[in-house]
Specification:
The structure holds two protein chains of two kinds. Chain A is α+β, with helices and mostly antiparallel strands. Chain A folds into two domains: 2-43 and 240-376, no CATH class; 59-227, no CATH class. Chain A has twelve helices and 13 strands. Chain A starts with a helix and ends with a helix. Chain B is of the alpha/beta class. Chain B contains seven helices and ten strands. Chain B has helices spanning 47-54, 78-85, 101-106, 116-129, 145-157, 175-192, 203-206; strands at residues 5-16, 21-32, 36-40, 62-67, 70-71, 86-89, 163-167, 195-199, 211-216, 219-223. In chain B, strands 6-7-8-3-9-10 form a six-stranded mixed beta sheet, with helices on both faces. A four-stranded antiparallel beta sheet of chain B has the order 2-1-4-5, with helices on one face. Classes of the chains: A alpha+beta, B alpha/beta. At the A-B interface, helix 9 and helix 12 of A face helix 2 of B. The structure holds adenosine-5'-triphosphate and magnesium ion.
Amino acid sequence: MLMVKNPFRNKTRAILAIIGISIGIATIVALGMVTGGLQNSTQNTLKAGSAEISVTKIGSGSFGSSGGTLDESLVEDLKNISGVKDTAGILRVNANISTTSGGGFGPMGGLYLSGISRNKLNMVGIDSINGSFYTENDSKEIIIGKTAAGNLNKTVGSTINIYGTDFKVTGIFETGNFIQDGGAYVSLSTLQNLTSNQDKVSSIAVKVDPDANSSQVSQSIQNAYPNDLSATTAADQANRINQSLGAIDTASWAISLLAIIIGGVGVINTMIMSVYERTREIGVLKAVGWKNKRILGMILGESIVLTLVAAVVGVIMGIIAVEIILNFMPSSDSFTPLLTLDTLLKAFAVAFLVGVIGGLYPAYRASRLAPTEALRYE
Amino acid sequence: MSEENIIEIHNLKKNYDKGNIKALNGIDLKIKRGEFISIMGPSGSGKSTLLNMIGALDRAEEGSIKVADIDLMEKTDLSEFRSQEIGFVFQMHNLIPNLTVLENVEIPMYEGKLNSEQMRERALELLEAVGLREKAETNPTKLSGGERQRVAIARALVNHPSIILADEPTGALDSKTGDIILKLLKDLHNKEHVTLVMVTHEPYVAKMADRILNVFDGKIKSSS
Ligand SMILES: Nc1ncnc2c1ncn2[C@@H]1O[C@H](COP(=O)(O)OP(=O)(O)OP(=O)(O)O)[C@@H](O)[C@H]1O
Ligand SMILES: [Mg+2]
């Protein structure tokens, strides 16, 4: 009873302490939601059916829309390398589009457009669609990702004008990968003709045999074309992303530590003041027979109640902060933050720890007060 | 220790300020079970210190003190003794302002074995006895000084103590309210057969007791 009522006797002080701690908790939650969201989408990149290896011209990035192009003949050639099950040529461009209605802008002013054979779509993680896939042979049909559809305000049946040509949206797909879902696909030959890249591709997706090792296959590809090709496995890519996620995670732990220290000092201060003001009352509790242990437990409990309330406030603040920040970022629709149970547990564990650390010393002091001194206290 | 005496004190000495203040300077005292004792004496003579020693709120340096068959010079955990044998009533009521009247009366029972239902029942019983049952859910800050002191008396009695120690219980009240408190204490003393030790500055209040002790410079000067 006392444990729940006491922390809020001095409201201003309680609110200040809660704000202090909850800012730390909010930061932990916000960073946790960002890493959680990114982790979630990298996991989706690695889903079954997609290609394990991406091959590009040496020296260009793995998403190679700006790098050099490869001869389309290589797509067939690579199939001869042992361990390779299937290959697909992909042409990628960052297309400028003009929207016919409304003033909506695409992500970064363009649309991430890829050309791939209709029957190879499963190799880029697209195996189901809302609507229908495009037909081959220079059709003026396009499928777009769910987030791109939202950004451009397009539905099945709408048209999109790309490089002066109207394309009809036949379907909308969702892979869970925020880069994919912000883009669009047309048939390879269509895009090649449209961009005068006949018989060129910017990357080749490679699917390996079920019993082959993708890093070995990736190595064999590079060995076969040492001066031309660079091959990256999906696992490599995921690792690279995980490394940057790891950096955010480290930052998040550092902030947690900072929150524990700053919050702990704040709680010690708040609780010492509160014990000091209640010296006489603690004397009375001892006079009526309360054991030192019970007084220690009461003060410690008050401190933990305070920090757990701060944790609830902090979690809410963190969620709101992420929502607000994403709302002001134009390309944010392609990224969904994710509040995982882990993050939530971490936030509450940190708050609990701050409560214990911050409450221990004041509680000890209260429990050691001499009752006669405490009762004489004015 | 005889069955008769609930308090037996011999040559008790208590110093403060590293021995510069001899608050108790050789107290000899025997109090019978069920007695009503008044303690008088000038300010600073050691009356409160004596009550604190009996209530085991502090330890003496020298001498012997036995209360309810317990040697207070020897016993290590005094909190249990305080909760079972002693009920304190202070000059200032010392209620906890953010708890209700009922919760204040329940506080001494936290160390006991009663469940919350039984605690509530017992607390209400005592609030009834001091005539404040209908104020059970009120906040103590909304009560008058006399009412607060009645709550403090209920709190002191809630664990069935054998001794009530009252340090100037009417000192902060006007005489009319003070009389109500005194009558309540005397009635409870008669009804419950508790031993009552009360410090007071008012001779007419002291006269209500079975015996008056006069304390002077940390010693008992006379007893009548
Ligand atoms: N905790 C303490 N620390 C230092 N000195 C103390 C302490 N408690 C009591 N004293 C001193 O011991 C002496 C006796 O004090 P005590 O409170 O027993 O007097 P009292 O008879 O109750 O006086 P009053 O009528 O004013 O309440 C005083 O000189 C007082 O200053
Ligand atoms: Mg006194």
